[in-house]
Amino acid sequence: MTVDISYDARTGEPVTELATSTTQDVAVALAAAAAAAPVVASTAPAERATWLGAIAHALDVPETAAELVRLADEETALGVDRLTMEIGRTSTQLRYYAEVAVEGSYLDATIDSAQTDRPALARVGVPLGPVAVFGASNFPFAFSVLGTDTASALAAGCPVVVKGHPAHPRLSRALADLTHRALAGTTAPDGLFALVTGFAAGTALVRDEHTAAVAFTGSQRAGLALWRLANERDVVIPVFAEMGTVNPVVVTRRAATRMDEIAAGFAASFTRGAGQYCTKPGLLFVPRGSGATDAVADALRRLAPSAWMLTEPIAGSAATGVGELVRAGAEVVAEIPGPAGGWAVGTTLLRARIEHLRAGSRLLDECFGPVAIVTEYSDRAELDRALGRLQGTLVAAVQSGAPDDGDDPDLAPLLTRLSALAGRVVVNDWPTGVAVTWAQHHGGPWPATTAPATTSVGAGALARFTRPVAFQNTPDAALPPALRADNPWRLPRRINGTVS
Amino acid sequence: MTVDISYDARTGEPVTELATSTTQDVAVALAAAAAAAPVVASTAPAERATWLGAIAHALDVPETAAELVRLADEETALGVDRLTMEIGRTSTQLRYYAEVAVEGSYLDATIDSAQTDRPALARVGVPLGPVAVFGASNFPFAFSVLGTDTASALAAGCPVVVKGHPAHPRLSRALADLTHRALAGTTAPDGLFALVTGFAAGTALVRDEHTAAVAFTGSQRAGLALWRLANERDVVIPVFAEMGTVNPVVVTRRAATRMDEIAAGFAASFTRGAGQYCTKPGLLFVPRGSGATDAVADALRRLAPSAWMLTEPIAGSAATGVGELVRAGAEVVAEIPGPAGGWAVGTTLLRARIEHLRAGSRLLDECFGPVAIVTEYSDRAELDRALGRLQGTLVAAVQSGAPDDGDDPDLAPLLTRLSALAGRVVVNDWPTGVAVTWAQHHGGPWPATTAPATTSVGAGALARFTRPVAFQNTPDAALPPALRADNPWRLPRRINGTVS
């Protein structure tokens, strides 16, 4: 029997051991999910919304939330304030995805009447079936057991089996228990939701014939491993892996006049959550001679960030990562020691010469944790060449002349350049923080995600879990509700080319 | 130097040899496409529409069309009537995809204003860049050099490099020449379109760093090979492969009263174009004792289909395929001899016992050509078990009680069952023929396509070639035109949740 060990991240002491799922547990969970799938798929979005609402409501109970935050803080050391905000975001996003499902445009219901030269066709998204969700370590609420992948898959009509992250094993089980209790008071079928734990369970989850899709948030190494595993199946299934990237920030020449403000913003952004954001800005391009490196180092010393990492391996790889960056040509310019004990690490600022940013260099890979690199460019051509060597990234940012300066001559060409590289481009703001809205896109070109056309945050997240089916020459009574003449789900639909 | 050999399909005689592209040719084509990509991407859809219109106009010139049809008929033996219809469809669909681009909803432009707790976000689809299109053999116009993949990629703002199919090498070159001449009179940049030929060129296309996506129509073997090749790249790119499938048809008990009509329809559908449709109905499920097998055999004898195949290998594998089906347990019930000479094959109807339709059996794989299997079921449970063993398929059909009978008790459960299996479900109609409309979906679960959420036909085809990018806190003047306040492209947009 293998176990998950729950540690106190601030002391490194093991608190308790918890048995992980057996292969049999996984098979049972997926069989139940597969049995529930047709029921869930044919349930009206408004009814599914009540299931998500019940979970959100349970999370919002103050005593429950306080206890979950306490548990999460012990396991992750992310702090009570941040975790309290995050649990609030999590119930908000459960409700948000339910609202998006009820609004219904994600189903893309489209109807073409018969004409003399063609048959009647009506198309709608059908839910894929059971989704395997791999929670992330760094957002124990918002991207984990009840996070954005779970919420959007449930909202889209798919049962979910979560593989709990071993960085917060007690919290994962507590969230699963809460979910089961909340759903018991609703019309949700058994099998709508399950938690499994342990490494072997994750592999079994991806291989199981009932699993229809995989959603993952985490490192490139783990995400690509799941993608490869899914590609080896007889029936290959989609893997929506959102993976950590370098997330470059470019400071234009005009922006250099406000370098102190930019340095403070950069220091705060890359050390936020101990640098454990997939959107952490890891690489700052500054005009040569702008004094940015010293300014960021000063800002860091004023900020005096203190950082426990989520797990011992993450703390280890943050420390190792700094060594790798130095061997790849970077130079340490500031080190702020971390707290004592547990999974603590220091904050490190490095400087690299722009010519060292070569394709394949370690300098162009994410270093998870409170670590960032500053690099100087001489002119736009040198900057362009360096940007051309970067990997696809979740987000890229520009600090331009002034907060509302659309006239900075470097801005427009930079946005064109960066939008070829990133899923989100930010101007005079920082990449950390991903709002849950209609226009959000949290994805990006390979290897930021395995499916660059999809987003894991925002209204677009639901569409990942459906697949269109067209019904040709089908009598109204035999069509799914979304396509019937009386439109019982009150969906926006495109009929003969016109949306109504 | 390797060559493409153009054969007369009716005689099997080689007509001429044509040099194929060198690796250098491919690199040059892709470098030009990559250079054109930003220009094409930033061109307004209405201007791109004039480029597609110029190509369509050139195809529509009667003398040109007649000469292209003559050439296509010699190379494919598909017949002048069918090819004349197909070239008409091809110019129509070039114009259709241009109209869909101008309408602009495929860009999914979405704008959220800033609020106190979140920044302004605006998202739009950006074209991926150069698309490698692998034309199909069986639709030398509609799914080849100027077919649905090329038209939808150009409409979506991506340069295209086509790998011409060796089944119609002269036609491919003639279509490419026509395209270059037509585009020369427009504002289209050099590099918008190119044709390359030869097997090695195809591999080089998929591997080239400039290629951003692959679109393919053809066999599972070839499509999956390209998918694997793309997955081995440093930067993995999406492969939209639409691949031939078995496309089952179920005749309900009530429908058995009109078996002669159904048998005639099935015979006509599976022999259409010599059975060389990816949507060919390859497997007919009929109620036991309905006399369907004899009825189909009779219909075939009345139809007396005559069939030249597209190529010698296709003719060979159709013949070999019948032997494989027999070894897998099927029994030949009717053979209609083909014409003499060239790539001719006979038409073959087989019968298989339903218990032989086991997962992994050859009976469940496509047999390209005028070949189909009839199988009898005793009751709904037996039928359901057999359907549960089928692979994902492009299309599935039901013949129910009467043309408008929504009351056939077997219809609704069958549609639920088949919509889990297929990208399109057809009632009282035949799967061959794929209308180009808003509601069309030409795709299907793995292995019908490598990307089951996407379609290669219909308005949805454009979205394959874009990737969303969100712009955060970006001044209006620096946004792409699709997201500017004055909406210069007049796109439908969702603003703060409401579509206008």
List the helices and strands and how they pair.
The structure is a homodimer of 500-residue chains.
Chain A: E1 3-8, E2 13-19, H1 23-42, H2 45-60, H3 62-76, H4 80-103, E3 110-112, E4 121-127, E5 131-134, H5 148-155, E6 160-163, H6 169-184, E7 193-196, H7 199-207, E8 213-218, H8 220-231, E9 239-243, E10 248-251, H9 259-271, E11 283-287, H10 292-303, E12 307-308, H11 312-327, E13 331-336, E14 344-345, E15 347-353, E16 371-377, H12 380-387, E17 393-399, H13 411-419, E18 422-427, E19 466-472, E20 494-495, E21 498-499
Parallel strand pairs in A: 3-20, 5-6, 5-8, 6-7, 8-9, 10-11, 10-17, 11-16, 15-16, 17-18
Antiparallel strand pairs in A: 1-2, 3-4, 4-19, 12-14, 13-15, 20-21
Helix pairs in contact in A: 1-7, 2-4, 2-6, 3-4, 3-6, 4-5, 9-10
Model description:
2 copies of one chain form a homodimer. Helices cover 36% and strands 21% of the residues of chain A. With 500 residues, chain A is α/β, with parallel strands linked by helices. In chain A, α2 runs antiparallel to α4 (80-103), α2 (45-60) packs across α6 (169-184) and α4 (80-103) packs parallel to α5. In chain A, the strands form 5 sheets. Chain A has a 7-stranded mixed sheet with strand order 13-15-16-11-10-17-18, sandwiched between helices. Chain A has a 5-stranded mixed sheet with strand order 19-4-3-20-21, with no helix packed on it. Chain A has helices spanning 23-42, 45-60, 62-76, 80-103, 148-155, 169-184, 199-207, 220-231, 259-271, 292-303, 312-327, 380-387, 411-419; strands at residues 3-8, 13-19, 110-112, 121-127, 131-134, 160-163, 193-196, 213-218, 239-243, 248-251, 283-287, 307-308, 331-336, 344-345, 347-353, 371-377, 393-399, 422-427, 466-472, 494-495, 498-499. Chain A folds into 2 domains: 3-244 and 453-483, 3-Layer(aba) Sandwich (Aldehyde Dehydrogenase, Chain A, domain 1), CATH 3.40.605.10; 248-427, Aldehyde Dehydrogenase, Chain A, domain 2. In chain A, β20 (494-495) and β21 (498-499) form a beta hairpin. The longest helix of chain A is centred in the first third of the chain and has 24 residues, at 80-103. In chain A, 60% of the residues are buried. Chain A has 13 helices and 21 strands. At the A-B interface, β3, β4, α13, β18 and β19 of A face β3, β4, α13, β16 and β17 of B.
